[in-house]
Amino acid sequence: QVQLVESGGGLVQPGGSLRLSCAASGFGFSTYHMSWFRQPPGQERELVASIGNYGISLSHVPSVRGRFTISRDNGKNTLYLQMNSLKPEDTAVYYCGAVRKWSDRWTIENYDYWGLGIQVTVSS
After folding, report:
1. How many Å apart are CA 48 and CA 10, to the nearest integer?
2. Residue among 72, 68, 69 nearest 55 (CA)
3. How do residues 6-34 score in pLDDT, each as one tens digit?
């Protein structure tokens, strides 16, 4: 049974930090490229960052570049998102997803597996 389980979310003040984790099981984690998406209230799901299956290729959207860092540990089948200097506009449900082709990472429909999501709220 394939599972992607996010953890590490919660309420944080502006300027604070959180580290999200996504634990994978039931599929070949190291053969998939992985991404973090987020869905702010009332908006569509959007790509935040992606990482290649070997952890070499990295991609962060401009709005989080320099503040968020995606990483993975294939030995632990876990994906991470370190989020620093958080802003209220980072408030969203964050999802991890698994995709086969690097060039397909921008499109939600191309993802084979998704986690259920975890809430991140940035507020004073």
Report:
1. 18
2. 72
3. 999 999 999 999 999 999 999 999 999 99
